[in-house]
Design a protein that fits this description.
Helix content is 72%, strand content 3%. By secondary structure, it is mostly helical.
């Protein structure tokens, strides 16, 4: 096997893993704050991609500028969803009922996208769409580097919010132990709403990155939701760093396995990793103390 091909494949796997890490961090926030399994996360990812495509088609500007609209829009939408819909679910059946509710939301988003844009596949046209960067013999598409840059930006912003702000400390306290956070005066209901909005805002950034690098269509979210759920289980439910590590490892593994197995069969690595995690370490391999209580 050509070493240059392997080197290029590993680089592409790192770039893909960064994108997975951003999207999986949002799913981890949902579960950490509210124990909600957010099956609609990938559908909002596709919605953000469509909004980026529509923005570029309408204005001729770079799709990354659309985040000035979509990030605050998705944050507000996440807060509204949590307060109007998810907060009404009964705690005893929250995890199970959240699956059904968010699945219904995903179907609604898919239906609306199909009605507005039809099922025709779309792709954002940018000036650097076909540009390549040569790196030690490897040819790397510029759009993948830009998508990775967006993922790094999103993860860095998320890290700053979680680790350096007072809201982040309140959010981490709520994730670690909700009752203890309430005892020290944290309004956990408000924190849950903002945390849910923050998770959905990551979908706005990730959807923009997806629009740069992929062909989009309304049902694309079914392709994404399985791998993302596998990542948060392998990384450990409630662990953002664990999800990021698992995303990077599985992203590289998927990219490398595409050489001998092809793109379709390489995706099975996510489900094999999920099976191994549930069998040998259900709390996750890279964190997930939260999962040990459920």
């Amino acid at each position: 096997m050509d070493s240059t091909v392997v080197f290029q494949t590993v680089i592409l796997g790192v770039l893909l893993g960064g994108q997975y890490a951003l999207l999986a961090s949002g799913l981890t926030l949902y579960f950490g704050v509210m124990r909600v399994v957010m099956l609609a996360h990938a559908s909002f990812l596709v919605l953000a991609a469509y909004l980026a495509w529509w923005f570029t088609t309408s204005t001729g500007l770079d799709p990354m500028l659309s985040m000035a609209i979509t990030v605050p829009l998705f944050f507000g939408l996440g807060v509204v969803m949590q307060r109007i819909l998810l907060s009404r679910l009964r705690p005893a059946t929250l995890t199970m009922m959240s699956c059904l509710l968010t699945l219904a939301i995903a179907l609604v988003v898919e239906g609306v996208l199909g009605f507005l844009f039809t099922g025709v596949q779309r792709r954002v046209q940018v000036g650097y769409g076909s540009a390549q960067l040569n790196f030690f013999g490897a040819s790397i598409p510029v759009v993948k580097l830009v998508s990775f840059g967006l993922a790094v930006f999103g993860l860095a912003a998320l890290y700053f919010i979680l680790m350096k702000s007072s809201f982040g400390r309140s959010l981490r306290a709520t994730i670690q132990h909700k009752q203890a956070a309430q005892l020290v005066g944290i309004n956990t209901d408000r924190v849950a709403g903002y945390g849910f909005g923050l998770g959905l805002a990551t979908a706005a950034v990730g959807g923009t990155a997806l629009a740069l690098d992929a062909t989009i269509f309304p049902s694309l979210h079914w392709y994404w939701i399985g791998p993302l759920m596998a990542i948060i289980v392998v990384g450990g439910l409630g662990s953002v760093p664990g999800a990021a590590i698992a995303a990077m490892i599985l992203g590289i593994a998927t990219s490398v396995l595409q050489i001998p197995m092809g793109a379709t069969w390489a995706q099975t690595v996510f489900y094999l990793a999920l099976f191994a995690t549930l069998l040998f370490r259900p709390q996750g391999f890279f964190g997930g103390r939260l999962a040990q209580r459920f």
